[in-house]
Amino acid sequence: MVHRGFTVYAEELSSWENTMDVGIFTWFGYVQPLRDSLQMIAQAGFERVMLWWGDSLAAYYGTPKETAGWVREAGLTVDSIHVPYENVTWLWDVDAGFRRKAFAALESFAEDCRCYGFPRLVVHVSQRGEMPPRRPETREGFRRLAEDTQRLGVQVALENTDQNAYLRYILDDPDCAALRFCLDTSHAALTGEREALLRDYGRRLACLHLSDNRGHRDDHFLPGQGNLSWDGICADLHAADYRGCLSLEVLPTPEQQAALSAQEFLREAFASAEILRRRMLELRAGPAMRTESAWDG
Predict the structure, then answer these.
(1) Do 81 and 51 contact (CB within 8 A), yes or no?
(2) Which residues make beta-bridge pairs with 6?
(3) Cα–Cα dist 109/82, whole Å
(4) Residue of 263, 237, 243, 244 whose CA lies nearest to 252
(5) What is the radius of gyration, based on Cα positions, of the chain?
(6) Which of 157, 177, 199, 232 has its CA 20 to 30 A from that of 61?
(7) How far is CA 100 from the centre of its chain?
């Protein structure tokens, strides 16, 4: 990965360095114990993590209590938990029983966040392929979820996928104003909706899933390895006054998987995140601090 024309003003930016954390999803393509992954993530320089939560895959890596303990042990904090989405159609099902089960699961995950001190959960509200019709009963369910999670002090962030009419149906409801937005840059590039989503929900942006792609599928490449305009993304995030964590949701390319250890890949990932952080801090510092384009795919 080559970064072109990026000049770091170390002295001027040093006072800003820790004002925007960088994070990464704990699944980054290497099969190993979660406890080891968390230690490696911290050693690479990341401050925060995203956790997969609430199903048999999450349980394979450890109990919720163990997972929370391992995060603290590594000196990291949790930016979000990502909850399962294989039954996302239940949220919209004509059968009230399925809808109750789906919302009960979200309530349970929110309670986990409260219990372990996690700030938010990330939720998909649609999936690829055929979806049930949008229905007002589902929107009412999200209204109640918003009220309940506000009392818990936990955020619910809805992530853009490939059928964002469902996301808009919920976020556009004034009674769901407490719900937040999670921007997935790769998903948004594939649907061509980044600018529109940030225009409409940028002030509700709570977290990010940052990755690159080459325009055909959700590759989960490191920023700079695909076709996305990262200077444009940073400018849009700055315009939205986003000050949260810059969180990567990335996987190695086949070539990286063959050539790099998990630790080496994490070091490359952190270098990528650090360029994003410095670009965001330059934008915040003002025009005098801006440099040439940081990215060369």
Answers:
(1) yes
(2) none
(3) 9
(4) 263
(5) 19
(6) 157
(7) 26
> Could you report the per-residue pLDDT of 252-261, keeping only the tens digit for each?
999 999 999 9
Say which CATH class 10-289 falls into.
alpha beta
Element holding 183 (H helix, E strand): strand 180-184
Which candidate, 219, 218, 221, 223, places its Cα nearest to that of 234? Answer: 223
Q: Which two tokens stand for residue 116?
A: 């372990």
Question: How far is residue 52 from each of residues 7, 18, 160, 168, 283, measured CA to CA in Å?
Answer: 36, 26, 17, 24, 32
Q: Is the pLDDT of residue 288 over 60?
A: no
The model's confidence at residue 286, banded by pLDDT at 50, 70 and 90, is: confident
3-class SS of residue 49? strand
Q: Is-contact 28 38, C-beta < 8 A? A: no
Strand partners, 120: 155
Q: Residue 246 is encoded by which pair of tokens? A: 């810059």
Q: Round to whole Å and give the CA distance between 230 and 277.
A: 11
Distance CA 43, CA 1 (A): 21
Residue 3 has pLDDT above 80, yes or no: no
Average pLDDT over residues 131-135: 96
**What is the distance in angstroms between the CA of the first residue and the CA of the last residue of the chain?**
7
Provide the H-helix boundaries in 153-223.
164-171, 185-191, 194-201
Cβ(213)–Cβ(222) under 8 Å?
no
Give 80-118 pLDDT, tens digit per residue: 999 999 899 999 999 999 999 999 999 999 999 999 999
In the block, which residue shows the tokens 């399925």?
98
- Provide the pLDDT for residue 266: 98
In eight-state DSSP terms, residue 173 is: S
State residue 174 phi and psi, 5-degree precision: -55, -30
Task: Kindly state the tokens that stand for 18.
Answer: 């820790």
